[in-house]
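Something for you to look into today, if you have time. Could you write out one complete protein record for me, on any chain you like? Leave the record below and I will have a look.
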Amino acid sequence: MSEIAVLGEGRGEAQSPLPALSAPELDISSPADWLALLKPRVMTLVVFTGWIGLLVAPGHLHPVLAVAAILCIAVGAGAAGAINMWYDRDIDAVMRRTRNRPIPAGRIAPGEALGFGITLAVASVLVMGLATNVAAAAALAVSIGFYVFVYTMWLKRRTPQNIVIGGAAGAFPPVIGWMAVTGNLGLMPVLMFAIVFFWTPPHFWSLSLWAHGDYQRAGVPMLPVVSGARETRRQIVLYTLLLVPLTLLPWALHTAGAIYGLSALALGLGFLASVWRVARDRQDARGVSLTNDAPARAAFKYSILYLFVLFAAMAVDRLVG
């Protein structure tokens, strides 16, 4: 990415006694810009699933330590987001939905963002280890490293399977929450990991269907750009068909009760109906929607609600049971 243009340049000692400053060197960032580096919308879902993992785990964690664990998950996720924005600042600058982010807009210097992210990442892992246990801290470190090195730096710009493999990074939080309480793995956190892992492709590909122009301009090989909209719709349906039975496994294997099972069934049917509308949307010969991708937008929004309610049902089931 090219350097930010110099805002002013001196015409002589009398006119400009101070050296000109480039945009990132000016104090133009706000607290909101530093918060935006943490990707707070993404962080919300990460924190929620981590919290549910902590709630459904057997055993007890002191409330203060539980809050510390959730904060560490939030800060770790934010740190990964900040490093992601530092690395992706070149493609963010050419995508409509990301070009006003603090780094491409010139409000925060890239080096400052990188230092901010690394500091938060190290601090979150250290505090998690001190507040809970080494296993939870290690899981948090792996999740941050996976998102930064495997997804952001390796997969995202190289393969249309970036979301499928990279989705593992977003599936770690419930495992971390569980391990903060227990210090070890179990069947339930593995199932929670698998649910988020298989939920990620239909969720993100629904977004990419109506944002594919941005990815194409940036040269990011998202599935709609590489394989076309029609194949993307087929893959969305396929992964949802795999996801819905998977969400019923905690009920079938008696790691969750009827409240969760019935909720998972109802939510899954709703998800299938949503993605079926995406698949049946009127399309041209290339598979491009003729209705401005309204079904894809609706499926994307439903997928967020779906995961929130599904994991909330796990917590309710655990508390009632």
